[in-house]
Amino acid sequence: MNSNYEIDIYKTLEYTNSYIDGCTCIYCKNFRTAFAIHNANKRLNDLGLSVDSAVEIMDFPREDGTSMYYAYFSLYGELNHDEYIIYEGEGVTMTLYPIGSNKLLYGNMGDNPPPLVLELEVELPWVLEESREDI
Q1: Nearest residue to 7 (alpha-carbon basis) of 42, 41, 47
Q2: Strand partners, 117
Q3: Could you tell me the pLDDT band of residue 104, with boundaries at 50, 70 and 90?
Q4: Under a CB-based contact definition with an 8 Å cutoff, are residues 90 and 43 in contact?
Q5: Facing residues of 5 across strands?
Q6: Could you give the residue ranges of the DSSP H alpha helices within the chain?
Q7: Torsion-angle region of residue 130: left (phi > 0), alpha (psi -120 to 50) or beta?
Q8: What's the rounded Cα separation, in Å, for the pair 15 and 28?
Q9: pLDDT the model gives residue 45
Q10: Which letter does DSSP use for residue 64 in this model?
């Protein structure tokens, strides 16, 4: 247990298995494919999450062919701060927020949302064989 936060992995898994329907657009598919092989994906898995359990994925293309992604995940647990960076490294930042935070960019978590949101920020290359539609 971390003194800054505690995640209920089992309740989080139960929620993501019953609520989350992943987007099938090529931008979300690219995020899931590219991040699944990223070293930081293990940290996501340690929280009871996977690339498939994101409730929202935002893609911001860059001129160099990479994209800045913001992915949001719902979690059950407790947070002893207004926000807390739980992972920072290898070009990835994972920040926990309470569901009512003014800093969140995304908040559509259903009628009875879990109390925490994880924001994952990462720059990833385009790894799919399909071409981007915005280039």
Answers
A1: 47
A2: 74, 97
A3: low
A4: no
A5: 79
A6: 9-19, 26-36, 41-46
A7: beta
A8: 20
A9: 92
A10: T
